[in-house]
Design brief:
Length: 168
């Protein structure tokens, strides 16, 4: 059954960023309200002179913006370009889909943000060298990356000797 979201009935709430340059209003996750199996979507309103999320890409989710009102500057691996009402912007998975918006105008920029729903996603933030595991929001510095078997050298010490020597 179709679910219609009337723009006049969608309430936007200000986010709680500790950095004023990242300031916007957003709706509750409309995709959750619709019980969508594959999509997560909401409406965002980016205040003048502010940025959307930090410059980032997703390893396990695609994303699509539809600009509903206003305009902003898009930062991507292709550089900087203006997006405005009616524009549809697609971001693929991985580094080639890295993106960030900045509202360079004096009016809010309202856009629909649609992403594929991944049970677990990894966001990379090239400017700050961070990695975030979503939806838990566990954030790590990329510099803490280690080899797969790091710290596993003493594996035999964790097993009872009689099990290790069984049938050998």
């Amino acid at each position: 059954m179709p679910r219609i979201f009337k723009s006049s009935e969608i309430e936007l709430t200000k986010n709680r960023s500790s950095i004023p340059h990242f300031s916007w209003k957003e709706s509750s996750p409309l995709g959750d309200l619709s019980q969508s199996k594959y999509l997560h979507f909401d409406i965002k309103s980016l205040f003048p002179g502010t940025f959307s999320y930090p410059y980032h890409c997703h390893r396990n989710a695609e994303e699509l913006f539809v600009v509903l009102e206003g305009e902003a500057t898009l930062r991507s691996p292709d550089g900087f370009q203006t997006v405005s009402k009616g524009d549809i912007i697609f971001f693929e998975e991985g580094p080639s889909g890295t993106h960030q918006l900045y509202n360079h105008s004096s009016e809010p920029c309202l856009y629909l943000d649609v992403r594929t729903k991944a049970t677990i996603d990894v966001c990379e933030y090239p400017d700050s060298g961070k990695i975030s595991i979503l939806p838990a929001m566990d954030i790590f510095e990329e510099s803490s990356k280690v080899r797969y078997y790091a710290g596993e050298e003493g594996v035999r010490d964790k097993w009872p000797e009689e099990l290790l020597n069984k049938d050998t």
